[in-house]
Amino acid sequence: xxxxxxxxxxxxxxxxxxxxxxxxxxxxxxxxxxxxxxxxxxxxxxxxxxxxxxxxxxxxxxxxxxxxxxxxxxxxxxxxxxxxxxxxxxxxxxxxxxxxxxxxxxxxxxxxxxxxxxxxxxxxxxxxxxxxxxxxxxxxxxxxxxxxxxxxxxxxxxxxxxxxxxxxxxxxxxxxxxxxxxxxxxxxxxxxxxxxxxxxxxxxxxxxxxxxxxxxxxxxxxxxxxxxxxxxxxxxxxxxxxxxxxxxxxxxxxxxxxxxxxxxxxxxxxxxxxxxxxxxxxxxxxxxxxxxxxxxxxxxxx
Length: 302
Ligand code: CP
Ligand code: NVA
Description:
Shape: globular
Order of helices and strands: HEHEHEHEHEHEHEHEHHEHH
Bound molecules: phosphoric acid mono(formamide)ester, norvaline
CATH superfamily of the largest domain: Aspartate/ornithine carbamoyltransferase
């Protein structure tokens, strides 16, 4: 069993499948109007160093629907006082902490010092909650993960690294299709390649990478915190834009996925993100259900 959610790589495949099953169950309860106040009276501290629409709104709505209360706290960790002191204050007041930080180290430090569960809500390295919600949506559209191929087109960033971690535990094939110099770091790639039951590959060849893909995923070319690299990134990634020509290289019935926010006209064109293959708003919806599952798994008292 896991006591924090920092990286999907920390979870077993059974943990991941149980979380996804719970997310499906909570989604069904929500749709049926069935009460599911499993965290009655509990509080979640929600620390944000970076902007957010989906993560903030889904965590806050989620904890409320579970009978608890979210407390939004915008702050750059480690500036006013040490992260370990923040953790040792928070654990005296709240039942769980979620944090969106620049440095991955900051979330690790919170988890090290806080006795209550800590949930990674995006760092410069990983975005595990996103990929849980994405996986729930992918399974809704494509059925079982086995034999599916997901082509992640663009930057080997935090979202991509979480997909690699997912593939290390759940048998599906993931290919990163990226320009040279923009793959994810060697350790993360080697870990996934060593552990994966499916195929985990990196290619710079767009045609080869998209061949037989069941899902085409992209994310912004410039993540939060990389704004001063924007111009050079735009030039490097231009050939990797997900437009209808690129989508046509994947299977006919491939779905299009994006964590959002989308930079329309950059990494994806309007016709793709708004087109019939797009499941981006299903992914966004599932942020609510998947994160409710994470909170219940970590915070429910037995
Ligand atoms: N996908 C995602 O995490 O969105 P926000 O940045 O709006 O939270
Ligand atoms: N890779 C993006 C994801 C945003 C949800 C970023 O880190 O800005």
